[in-house]
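Annex B. Sample input.
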Amino acid sequence: MIQSIEDAIAHEALYKPSDPKTLQALATVTLATFVGPTAVGKNFNMEMTGLPQAGTITTRDPREGDVNYRYFDDEAFFQKINRGEFAQYGVYGPEGPMYATDVKDYTPNAKNVMDTTYGGVETLIDRGVFKAVRPIGVLAPVDLWESRLEKRFAGQPANKIASRLTQASETLAAIQESYVKPCDRLVIVSTEQNTQSNLEAINTFIETGYTVKKETDSITEIVEDMIELLTKLKRKHT
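Annex B, continued. Sample output.
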């Protein structure tokens, strides 16, 4: 029985939905998960598909610009865990906030898109409750990404910037390790010039679950350039 954030953290890795209505609905959803560091263009590419975007439940306070969020207090969140009604959930930090999705966050009998972490993708795949999970890694040319990051970081406190840079490093390492070569994971480089080709690649991948041709050398080079940029930014902002 989950009664505290400590309980939720301890149970997170073992959690699997058990509510019959939840399982029945999720089994009709093909979920395309977009993974990448901050400011690479994940939201742009998700919106470009025109597919329904999965919502999010959270225990944090509302923020300006939130879209598709629902806000729960801790007790209501714990009850959903105990009833097995979440598709998945995560706790960020020893005191939260907590995030999750349930059946209301997905459009049944359809392809859906979601922005999530690299760890969240692996959890969704391991749980095996969706019809299919299609992992898509999103990168950006380093010059463009640096410009976006500087705009994103403007006015933010140093500790928040440091946290974002650490998350970006971990995400790029995961893409480098698990996304570049496998044919059942797609990697796109998000630029205005690539918009149409990216859309075609995304749609084909969501439909089939495979990508036939990957320019692994150029993708690897972009990842390495982005990692090098993070090293420079860490020196600048710490």
